[in-house]
């Protein structure tokens, strides 16, 4: 008797799931928005979940290219069964990021403050919490603060140079990726936390291990969990899905706790991110509102502070190390560019009497072009996420986005769009010269850089 009933229940469940998918997959058709045909059960992201070679950024570029080739101004896709809006027309993108930003104050990323405290960071938060926190943390990244932290950068740069000389003396291949990772983590640990971890001397330090693990998606289960949380954040929150393990929370919370305790006990201060958080908590300067003062002094837990420290570490490590690696790769491939860059560096150093200073670096105009072209060809942030906070009519169309609709802007797609960047696969720093920036189309695309 049991088996027939069990079979009936299974059929009912399977039918219900199938009908739900069919209903969910009809969303863009009802909106009269072109879309990529989805498949059960992963929608359009099967390759993202099942393949280690396919990432969300590449997937979104693929969708962007399809709609662009079709002459569409936008399109739709499905992340599992969650509809995602992909704008293609630059005017629509600029409207979402700039003119009509008040419709899209939420970034649309998953966070679970209760079960996964580190996920509730500046990158994931939205609305007023994001706006308030961002305004308070922005001073940490001003030119004046960066100038103050320049000396620690030189310390790490000297260690990088010593490591290269040491590897060169041994012969063989130098792993630029490992060098970039060790340098980036050393800089972040020293400038943000006041911790001298010297990753060149201690390549297996906890900082390096956590940095590598943060962006390691070799596990099928982790890729699925990340995609699921990204696609259905409300359900993921209900199920208590954790993006980061408890060991992450413990490690970064302990760093923050020990650092704050030491500085408050010894009455010492530093010009770094943790010091800014300490000053916020203590309302140094008296520029907090009563509500903000209450939050930071009574409501701001160590785990909340650790979340902001963690995202600074994680985002800084990944973006800096990958940009560094790709830049070295392109310089090795393009010897003329390498020679011109070397000449500029030598000329600027002569003017500064051989000293590497903040001002000397700022005067390296061509070096800045090389870095910007690296970021153009290999954007470390491959897409920008937004969430529609209230019904919004897409400019120039009759399409109305419903409240709660997720928007995925493909930075990678735009940066490799031939309309804006002729011969996009070519590494050409001249795109960012004064002459290159005069073109109207280029000026339009450059607004995307500030969208993150």
Automatic annotation (TrEMBL):
One Pfam match: p450
Protein name from the UniProt record: Cytochrome P450
Membrane-spanning ranges: 6-21
A GO term, aspect molecular function: iron ion binding
Taxonomy of the source species: Eukaryota, Metazoa, Ecdysozoa, Arthropoda, Hexapoda
Domain of life: Eukaryota
Keywords in alphabetical order: Endoplasmic reticulum, Heme, Iron, Membrane, Metal-binding, Microsome, Monooxygenase, Oxidoreductase, Transmembrane, Transmembrane helix
GO cellular component: endoplasmic reticulum membrane
UniProt cofactor(s): heme
Signal peptide: none
Subcellular location(s) per record: Endoplasmic reticulum membrane; Microsome membrane
Membrane topology: Peripheral membrane protein
